[in-house]
Design a protein that fits this description.
With about 160 residues, the protein is α+β, with helices and mostly antiparallel strands. The protein contains 4 helices and 7 strands. It has a 7-stranded mixed sheet with strand order 1-2-3-4-5-7-6, with helices on both faces. One of its GO terms (molecular function) is acyltransferase activity, transferring groups other than amino-acyl groups.
């Protein structure tokens, strides 16, 4: 496994990853597949634009295994009081293998070396991610619409 800076060429993979992440949510909708794909492409474009505009100082990283992309990891560490995990996403076959745990622990270790914590947001419906974050020492510090802001504090 390795992390590398995302490039324009990675947008195709990231768009596909976004579609995979939202597939279950869209499955029950009676839309034709072409309509679903157009919707997903538009939503990905909006999300990507939001991330690039609001987290311009973040590292936008691709997670690779044997030179093939398996996920993305967006980390803001320069401009904020705490490090912020903006986004972490893996293809389904790479989930629950410890990849996310290792990325988060490495981020916690790096943040602690600067005397800083790590913040993130999680959708309240994403119980698996919330359990992971809680297991790694994150605590809910705010409710923001459908999201919870969680913080791991350096001690």
């Amino acid at each position: 496994m390795r992390l590398r800076a995302a490039t324009e060429r990675d947008l195709v993979f990231m768009r596909e990853l976004y579609g995979v992440l939202r597939a279950d949510e869209l499955a029950p909708l009676p839309w034709p597949n072409a309509t679903k794909q157009t919707f997903l492409d538009d939503q990905f474009a909006l999300q990507h634009l939001h991330f690039v505009r609001h987290y311009a100082a973040a590292d936008f990283l691709v997670i690779e295994h044997d030179h093939s992309p398996v996920g993305r990891f967006y980390l803001l560490h320069e401009a904020a009081a705490d490090f912020m995990i903006v986004d972490i996403a893996l293809l389904p076959t790479w989930r629950q293998l410890g990849v996310g745990t290792e990325l988060i622990r490495a981020t916690q270790n790096r943040a602690s070396s600067f005397g800083r914590g790590v913040a993130l947001h999680v959708d309240q419906r994403n119980t698996a991610a919330r359990r992971l974050y809680e297991r790694l020492g994150f605590q809910v510090v705010a409710e923001e619409g459908p999201y919870q802001r969680m913080l791991w504090q350096y001690e």
